Prior knowledge:
Layout (H helix, E strand, L loop, with lengths): L1 E9 L12 H6 L6 E4 L9 E7 L4 E10 L8 E5 L10 E2 L4 H4 L6 E5 L9 E2 L9 E3 L6 E6 L2 E7 L5 E3 L10 E9 L5 E7 L8 E6 L15 E7 L4 E7 L9 E8 L4 E6 L2 E7 L12 E3 L10 E10 L5 H11 L6 E2 L7 E4 L1
Parallel strand pairs: 3-6
Antiparallel strand pairs: 1-4, 2-5, 3-4, 5-24, 7-22, 8-9, 9-12, 10-11, 11-22, 12-21, 13-18, 13-22, 14-15, 14-21, 15-16, 16-17, 18-19, 19-20, 23-24
Amino acid sequence: LTDFPILLHLSSSSGINGDDVTSIFDEVGSNYKKIAITTSDGTTQCYVEVEKWDAVNEEAWLWVKVPNISATEDTILYIYYDNSQPDNTTYVGDPSETPAQNVWDSNFVFVSHMRDDPDSSHIRDSTSNAYNGTKKAAGEPAVTAAGQIDDAQNFDGLDDYIDTVDMNEIELHDATFSFWIKVGNLAADLDILTKGEHTTERPLIIWRDEEVGAPADLGAGNTDTISVLTYDGSVQHWVAAPSGTLNDIDWHHFAIVIDVTNNQIKIYKDGVLVASNTKTWNGIQGTTTPVRIGDATPSKYPFNGIIDEVRISNVARSAAWIKAAYETERDNLLTVSYTHLRAHETSLH
Length: 349
């Protein structure tokens, strides 16, 4: 995989075998732009987005754009940190700053870590598109620190939603949608990610469906499914995947791949393909309705639970990409070890 964004989590127990890897905080404190992350040559720098840096509790979540990762051998990175150096503003940035945006290549349309940013009424898009989201109101949904990756948005199951109005006219052909969900109190339908309303235009609706029965090609009697409905202006296309019990107090990752070239819609759960259907699909057309997280039509099918790491791409991601994304987003792709302490150098692999 090329230009792949990996999660680097630093804490008192995130090293190999639970090792403490917080000496970086002892050196730079809250000055996180005093770091540099390079490839194995020790020179070529990688772009870094600082999702969160907590110097007090000595914990950080960083997204790093890695030129190449291999499925057969370790990819070695180095992190340098020195408080006496000037700020590394070329390669390390906060969300909305250019270095952070460069972590996400042009195939990413929207990436949100689902934190409150810059205030309790908004979430931020980490890509250069700046399709930032607006909540129904301040604290609706409420931010929670109990996300899959630190903060996330906790939807109350009543009327919470997040609009990305700037994506009204977006058009997608091949596409990939992904997110983490932790379902709270179950209802018949829980909207997750939508564009268009149930009663009118339906370019895209992704939802958790308890009792599937309307479209015949989903099969009768299915329960606990993740369902996808697309509408290209003339034909509705439905795909559903048995998702297992979703009120199991666990986080689950879903990726929906729209592959126009091969006429397929695929659903992945926790990195594994669980459903695929052949569908002739012309893509998502621009409409007057926004991409919305949590409820397509306010108060009709409101999501109840927590949603984290929502991403939209304008390509049909491969199975390898989705598996790697799942592993890194659950902090299982990268291990951290202090094998070199000379000159504040550490090795990540």
